[in-house]
Amino acid sequence: MTQDGRRLRGLRSREVILEQAVGLASVEGLDGLSLGRLAAATGTSKSGFFAHWRDKEQLQLDAVEWAARQWKEHVVAPAMSAPAGVRRLFALHEARLRFYGDGVLPGGCFFFTVQAEFDDRPGAVHDRIARAMGEWQEFIQRLVAQAKELGELVEGADPAQLAYEIDALGEMVIIHSRLHDGPAALAHARRAVLQRLRALCPEPALLPED
Predict the structure, then answer these.
(1) Residue 65 burial (10 A CB sphere; 0-12, 13-18, 19+)
(2) What burial class does residue 54 get, using C-beta atoms within 10 Å of its C-beta: 0-12 exposed, 13-18 middle, 19+ buried?
(3) What's the pTM?
(4) What pLDDT, in 10s, does the model give residues 54-110?
């Protein structure tokens, strides 16, 4: 096998492991990642596994990176295809709900699980999770601000406040859909954000009625 071939095989092996790691962490948290368990689940030898990660913390950090990339692909990218303004903001919320409804991750949401796990544990993993969560909030705020600039949200709409509300309604789905009625939780979260945006939009016809 050529050097390029070995490198490609190594990258694929690493991606398979990270995909498994993010799925497992969405259920059990990052502390639940066992190097031996992941190696067995992915058919990777322990020596091959340690060729990718020198320690558990580095694996955890890389899992956060992979989860952030997955979130952008499944949630952010689809929303960006919608017209800029209030429709893009609502498309982002719908893409998030679709991510949960489709069961992309067995635990529902990687970041919901790990932020509760590391919120009071200083260190590199805590900082990387905090940065990812901050970037998500800032992204929603930018979409709100853009909708205001386009005249599709009233001038008094507060980007930070509205972003917080939209994010909170999305997070509630994770809890309610797993402990109560999943489809109902998704429907309530969709309707709540839709009604909030329609009330703040000078042209509510830009958005669905329900």
Answers:
(1) middle
(2) exposed
(3) 0.90
(4) 788 999 999 999 999 999 999 999 999 999 999 999 999 999 999 999 999 999 999
